[in-house]
Amino acid sequence: MRPVVSAVALAGTVVLAAGPGAPASATTRTWTVSPGGAITAMAGKTILTDTPTGAMSSCQSSRMSGTLKQGSGLPGAGIGSLATAVYSLCQAGPFPGKVTARGLPWQLSLTSYNRSTGVARGTISHFQINFAPSFAQCTAAVKGTGSTTPDGVAPVSYASKTGTLKILTTGGDLHFYHVRKCVGIINNGDAATLSASYTISPRQVITSP
Q1: What number of CA atoms fall less than 13 Å from residue 104's CA on the CB side?
Q2: What angle is formed at CA 174 by the lines to CA 91 and CA 32, rounded to 5 degrees?
């Protein structure tokens, strides 16, 4: 694994963008959400990774807030909206950095449900994260394709039993593009992942017939 210190020493601003259009199509299934309404989401370590090179940047914690629809017979698309996202004590290796959310509100959509485990799966879209180390020149964008449109999606799961929303490292289409002055630490077309595990408060019960 290539050390992240090199990545930060050269990194300027890393942009994580998920598309403003609809995320992966929600199925025709309907959903029940209780209690719905305002939520907060608290996570510990939150990690952005270039999969082929192993370059990583991490934050010791992150926090989101937003709202969920309430009731039954709800469509999965746009079932939730995340209005704020804050990332704290971020760095790559020993070097500090600043991570700033952009493109808010982000959209939560649900696409599938496992009744035996009570786990729903879906995507968060419409989001962008800017990462700026304390010093650097490297810049890149993480999204679905190399176009100028932010068009990526990040896969998520939600477990009603624990109230845990996870951003998953498999099942998404995030890649690095528009890479400049990163000398092989980050490359155009490299697969990217974002990883975090959020505790939702108040805990939501989300089911689908």
Answers
A1: 14
A2: 100
Evaluate whether 15 touches 145 at the Cβ level (below 8 Å).
Answer: no
At a CB cut-off of 8 Å and minimum separation 6, what does 189 contact? 146, 175, 176, 177
Q: Of 5-14, 41-50, 109-118, 159-168, give the lowest mean pLDDT range.
A: 5-14
DSSP 132-154: EESS--EEEEEESSSSSS----E
C-alpha 209/C-alpha 166 separation (Å) is 22
Scan for tokens 């999204």, then name that residue: 143
Q: With CA atoms as reference, report the closest residue to 133 among 98, 102, 100.
A: 98
- pLDDT tens-place string over residues 131-172: 766 666 777 777 778 777 777 788 999 999 999 999 999 988
Contact status, residue 82 vs residue 66, Cβ threshold 8 Å: yes
- Strands 128-133 and 11-17 come out as antiparallel
How long, in residues, is the chain?
Answer: 209
Lowest mean pLDDT across 56-60, 61-65, 119-123: 56-60
Does this model's pTM top 0.85? My answer is no
Tokens describing residue 71? 């009731």
- For residues 19 and 161, what is the distance between their CA atoms, to the nearest angstrom? 30
**122 bridge partner residues:** 110, 156
Q: What's the Cα-to-Cα distance from 144 to each of 61, 93, 151, 155, 199, rounded to whole Å?
A: 25, 26, 5, 12, 27
